[in-house]
UniProtKB/TrEMBL annotation:
The keyword Iron-sulfur applies. The keyword Iron applies. It comes from Inhella proteolytica. One of its GO terms (molecular function) is metal ion binding. Keywords: 4Fe-4S, Electron transport, Iron, Iron-sulfur, Metal-binding, Transport. Signal peptide: none annotated. This is YfhL family 4Fe-4S dicluster ferredoxin. Residues 1-29 form the 4Fe-4S ferredoxin-type domain. Coiled coil: none annotated. Its cofactor is [4Fe-4S] cluster.
Length: 85
């Protein structure tokens, strides 16, 4: 699953710089996660860094974006290939 940021976000700026896939950006009111770039840090870390560091625990898995580990790994590989191209 991709992660999502809920409206409980306090815009503390902790999540955006730790995302290895640049999936987090400022939305109209609070930070948002691009589900096409979110790999839950698969390929980079054992734990999603944004959720780990979030001081208000507002970054759950998005049930609307169910993805297994293999799918997340394929997304990571695709994003890695785009970086080198």
């Amino acid at each position: 699953m991709a992660l999502k940021i809920t409206d409980e976000c306090i815009n503390c700026d902790v999540c955006e710089p730790v995302c290895p896939n640049q999936a987090i950006s400022m939305g109209p009111e609070f930070y948002v996660i691009d589900p096409n770039r979110c790999t839950e840090c698969v390929g980079h870390f054992d734990t999603p860094q944004c959720a780990l560091l979030c001081p208000v625990a507002c970054i759950p898995k998005d049930p609307a974006r169910a993805e297994d580990h293999e799918t997340l790994m394929q997304k990571y590989l695709r994003l890695s290939a785009e970086k080198t191209a």
